[in-house]
């Protein structure tokens, strides 16, 4: 077997090609950036799909562009007077008073105030937490709104709230005293 072969056209290659083997040409300029741009495009696509998915799932993202009117624009609702019940005193309604402040004796003080004004106070105790900011009167049925307003009228600055889940007591009304309540002196 011959160990050397005669020269042919494949033996005369220019040196500037820097080829390794017969089929490999040098890499094109900037070819290393292709992977970076593909990764950037994939990341942007995934972020966009995630934002759209979240907006569909919890409907909290707002994609309105300022200056462009929305197709689903609705007129602002006109303000109408909401009928409210007149404050009443209902001695047959039982009231539970919960102290939502770190001060001791607040529930008893509010209970004494309500009893002096004709209310039937059942339990006076501490609430589960001591960081309640606003005194609130909770009522479980819409027909008790007048009674809740009657209790709230005795506690300046207090709010009323319909609690359909219940307040955790068997009473008709539940007062949770907040840090805004000022105890009377004496």
UniProtKB/TrEMBL annotation:
<dbReference type="Pfam" id="PF13399">
    <property type="entry name" value="LytR_C"/>
</dbReference>
<dbReference type="InterPro" id="IPR027381">
    <property type="entry name" value="LytR/CpsA/Psr_C"/>
</dbReference>
<keyword id="KW-0812">Transmembrane</keyword>
<protein>
    <recommendedName>
        <fullName>LytR/CpsA/Psr regulator C-terminal domain-containing protein</fullName>
    </recommendedName>
</protein>
<feature type="region of interest" description="Disordered">
    <location>
        <begin position="73"/>
        <end position="94"/>
    </location>
</feature>
<dbReference type="InterPro" id="IPR050922">
    <property type="entry name" value="LytR/CpsA/Psr_CW_biosynth"/>
</dbReference>
<feature type="transmembrane region" description="Helical">
    <location>
        <begin position="35"/>
        <end position="57"/>
    </location>
</feature>
<feature type="compositionally biased region" description="Low complexity">
    <location>
        <begin position="73"/>
        <end position="91"/>
    </location>
</feature>
<feature type="domain" description="LytR/CpsA/Psr regulator C-terminal">
    <location>
        <begin position="93"/>
        <end position="181"/>
    </location>
</feature>
<keyword id="KW-0472">Membrane</keyword>
<keyword id="KW-1133">Transmembrane helix</keyword>
């Amino acid at each position: 077997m011959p160990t050397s072969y005669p020269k042919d056209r494949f033996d005369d290659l220019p040196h500037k090609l820097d080829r390794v083997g017969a089929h490999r040409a040098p890499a094109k300029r900037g070819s290393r950036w292709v992977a970076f741009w593909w990764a950037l495009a994939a990341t942007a696509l995934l972020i966009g799909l995630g934002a759209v998915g979240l907006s569909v799932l919890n409907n909290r993202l707002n994609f309105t562009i300022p200056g462009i009117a929305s197709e689903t624009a609705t007129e602002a609702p006109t303000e109408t007077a909401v009928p409210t019940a007149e404050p009443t005193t209902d001695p047959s309604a039982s009231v539970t008073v919960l102290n939502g402040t770190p001060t001791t004796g607040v529930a008893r003080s509010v209970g004494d105030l309500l009893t002096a004004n004709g209310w039937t106070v059942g339990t006076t105790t501490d609430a589960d937490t001591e960081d309640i900011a606003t005194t609130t009167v909770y009522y479980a049925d819409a027909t008790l709104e007048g009674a809740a307003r009657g209790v709230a009228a005795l506690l300046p600055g207090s709010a009323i709230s319909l609690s359909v889940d219940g307040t955790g007591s068997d009473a008709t009304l539940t007062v949770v005293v907040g840090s805004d309540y000022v105890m009377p002196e004496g």
